[in-house]
Amino acid sequence: MPTQEKAEQIAMLEEKLKKATIVLSAEYRGLTVKDVSELRRQLRKKKIEYIVAKRTLVRIAADKVGKKGLDKVMKGPTALVIGYGDVNEPAKIVTDHIAATKIPLTVHGGVMDGQVLDQGGVKALAALPPKPVLIAKMMGSMKSPLYGLVHGLSFHTAGLARVLEGRRKQLEAAAPKAS
């Protein structure tokens, strides 16, 4: 039977994991307090949380809320990066921070929409442009065929109008003039 403190931690983790759109698991061994504080500051700007928790408690909370597979990517001392909005933002911030500062933080993977991500999946997710950019690109690719159709139709319509105008001038020139 878990102690009252552990039960409260499990309840807190359950609440956070329920709302989460993505959860990344990172091993924070070797980080200084300064490194963690700087990373937390960057994450907090985007309303992303960085939580250090016992793997057993995380596993219990994840099972209760249906975040299956999170236990597969938790290794060593575990920190969770919990995002509530755009799914690629946490991955991008963490991977960019690791690259910029060369801190020894290791992202083992994560869970997003019921799918387990390995290290490569997290890196691929971080490389994606933000959601608004992806939507704009998709809309542009959807509008492109329509613009082509409109241009093609207007080109052929204009050509037909020129041909008809030329024929009208021919007929006027060939018609006898009444004086």
Question: Could you list some keywords that capture this structure?
Answer:
5-stranded antiparallel β-sheet; Alpha-Beta Plaits; alpha+beta; 179 residues
CATH architecture heading of the largest domain: 2-Layer Sandwich
Overall pLDDT confidence: 86
Largest sheet: 5 strands, antiparallel
Shape: rod-shaped
Question: What spatial order of strands do you see in the largest sheet?
Answer: 2-3-1-4-5
Q: Give the number of domains.
A: 2
CATH-defined superfamily of the largest domain: Ribosomal protein L10, N-terminal RNA-binding domain
The rounded distance between the terminal residues' Cα atoms is 115 Å
Low-pLDDT stretches are: none
Q: What structural class do helix, strand and pairing data support? A: alpha+beta
**Share of helix, binned:** 55-70%
Number of helices in the DSSP assignment: 6
Q: Would you tell me which CATH topology of the largest domain applies?
A: Alpha-Beta Plaits
- Computed CA radius of gyration, to the nearest angstrom: 30 Å
Relative strand content? 5-15%
**CATH class label of the largest domain:** Alpha Beta
The number of distinct β-strands equals: 5
Order of helices and strands: HEHEHEHEEHH
